[in-house]
């Protein structure tokens, strides 16, 4: 991994060094990662003041005489330090692992894949090729698919897959003991600068990485399934995760075409699955009561909310439901949600003045009130186009006669 410096304006650089173990991954670099040639290759020297900076870096590197001395850069917000991820590794070749391999390779990042089951390793590339063909509209023609597949290799051991990797993504089965074992092994065999990510959908990283010497580089990177088709990705650091690791992971996901969302603190199942669970629990409650059939529950989503949610998040959709935006809507109808919350969870109000204020700031930062009508018309055109696509793309595996 290399460190990329991006000049953003006037800045001040303070140089220090530390003796002993370093808990800031961002501070580790090799001797040639900040030299003049590297900076010039990245086209970052755009101001004479860089020459003074380079001289200071040279002085700093010369100070690194003690084998455990690690130089650090302390920087103002005007100087951004980015960890460059140039080699990815995936542990586990199931649906999620293979999909992540596509995500990384599609973005031009070589990816190694490992699975503890020999049969899974043997079939991994064939299954990835099938997935690429199925997503040709996003990947491109046969030549583009081959280029992506050529960036993916299969390793025969955990040590081989992790060798020289800058970003290691664990995608094994959802068992806490298994994750503890794999992360303990990875922490011993990967290079000190490597980020260790987990795709867990339920376990905060602190539940299985707290005792690791390299715990500061561990982080949750949880996708919707499959990530090469559904870009939203939860990024959830532990309390001990280095901020530089969080920032680098967020930037890497964006580089790969994902849409990362920050989960600010740990909770089981994070947010994506909890939102889905809230809907599924209510669907099952309605089903068990006999008020509605399974088929009609699915229709409410596929022929209702799903069409709208394909283009707008739920808060964005609510914002278009009143001329005065989300504040007016919640002022008028918020009691409905409060009543439902009390019925379902016996808690207090959820539509609080604080919540309305936050949502108002969020909505108006995106869309002025005067533009609500224009966006509503765009939404309607987009939904009409999506309906046309659905009608012209019937699912051949499902009966179309309405029979169960």
What is the strand and helix layout of this fold?
Blueprint: E1 2-7, E2 13-19, H1 36-41, H2 49-62, E3 69-75, E4 79-84, E5 88-91, H3 95-106, E6 111-114, H4 118-134, H5 136-139, H6 142-150, E7 152-154, H7 158-162, E8 167-170, H8 176-189, E9 195-198, H9 206-209, E10 218-223, E11 232-237, H10 243-255, E12 259-262, H11 272-289, H12 294-309, H13 314-319, H14 325-345, H15 353-366, H16 372-391
Parallel strand pairs: 5-6, 5-8, 6-7, 8-9, 9-10, 11-12
Antiparallel strand pairs: 1-4, 2-3, 10-11
Helical residues, percent: 40-55%
Oligomer: single chain
Looking at the structure, the CATH topology of the largest domain is Rossmann fold
* Low-pLDDT segments: 1-82
Order of helices and strands: EEHHEEEHEHHHEHEHEHEEHEHHHHHH
Residues in β-strands, percent? 15-25%
Query: If you average the pLDDT, what whole number results?
Result: 81
* Beta-strand segment tally: 12
Question: What can be said about this structure in brief?
Answer:
With 404 residues, the chain is an alpha/beta fold.
Structure description:
- This protein is an alpha/beta fold and 404 residues long.
- The protein folds into 3 domains: 2-83, no CATH class; 88-262, NAD(P)-binding Rossmann-like Domain (Rossmann fold), CATH 3.40.50; 293-391, no CATH class.
- The chain is 48% helix and 15% strand.
- It has helices at 36-41, 49-62, 95-106, 118-134, 136-139, 142-150, 158-162, 176-189, 206-209, 243-255, 272-289, 294-309, 314-319, 325-345, 353-366, 372-391; strands spanning 2-7, 13-19, 69-75, 79-84, 88-91, 111-114, 152-154, 167-170, 195-198, 218-223, 232-237, 259-262.
- Strands 7-6-5-8-9-10-11-12 form an 8-stranded mixed β-sheet, sandwiched between helices. The chain has a two-stranded antiparallel sheet with strand order 1-4.
- Strand 5, helix 3 and strand 6 form a beta-alpha-beta unit.
- Helix 4 packs antiparallel against helix 6 (142-150).
């Amino acid at each position: 991994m290399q460190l990329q410096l991006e000049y953003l304006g006037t800045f001040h650089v303070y140089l220090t060094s530390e003796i002993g173990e370093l808990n800031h991954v961002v501070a580790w670099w090799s001797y040639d990662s900040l030299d003049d040639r590297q900076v010039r290759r990245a086209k970052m020297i755009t101001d004479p003041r860089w020459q003074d900076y380079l001289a200071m870096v040279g002085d700093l590197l010369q100070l690194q005489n003690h084998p455990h001395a690690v130089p650090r850069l302390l920087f103002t917000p005007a100087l951004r330090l980015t960890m460059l991820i140039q080699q990815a590794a995936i542990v586990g070749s199931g649906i999620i692992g293979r999909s992540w391999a596509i995500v990384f390779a599609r973005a031009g990042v070589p990816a190694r894949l490992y699975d503890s089951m020999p049969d899974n390793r043997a079939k991994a590339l064939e299954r990835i090729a099938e997935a690429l063909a199925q997503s040709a509209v996003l990947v491109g023609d046969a030549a583009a698919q081959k280029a992506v597949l050529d960036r993916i290799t299969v390793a025969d051991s955990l040590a081989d897959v992790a060798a020289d990797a800058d970003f290691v993504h664990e995608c094994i089965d959802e068992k806490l003991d298994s994750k503890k074992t794999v992360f303990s092994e990875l922490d011993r065999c990967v290079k000190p600068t490597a980020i260790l990510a987990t795709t867990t959908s339920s376990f905060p990283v602190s539940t299985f990485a707290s005792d690791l010497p390299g715990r500061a580089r561990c982080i949750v990177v949880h996708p919707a399934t499959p990530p090469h088709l559904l870009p939203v990705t939860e990024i959830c650091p532990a309390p001990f995760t280095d901020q530089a690791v969080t920032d680098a992971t967020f930037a890497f996901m964006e580089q790969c075409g994902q849409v990362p969302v920050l989960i600010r603190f740990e909770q089981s199942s994070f947010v994506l699955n909890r939102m889905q669970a809230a809907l599924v629990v209510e669907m099952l409650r309605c089903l068990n009561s006999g008020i509605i059939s399974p088929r009609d529950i699915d229709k409410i989503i596929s022929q209702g909310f799903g069409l709208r949610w394909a283009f707008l998040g739920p808060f964005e959709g609510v914002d278009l439901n009143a001329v005065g935006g989300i504040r007016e809507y919640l002022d008028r109808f918020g009691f409905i949600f409060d009543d439902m919350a009390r019925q379902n969870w016996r808690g207090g109000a959820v539509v609080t003045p604080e919540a309305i204020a936050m949502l108002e700031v969020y909505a108006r930062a995106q869309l002025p009130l005067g533009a609500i009508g224009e966006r509503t018309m765009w939404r309607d055109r987009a939904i009409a186009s999506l309906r046309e696509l659905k009608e012209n793309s019937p699912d051949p595996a499902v009966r179309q006669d309405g029979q169960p």
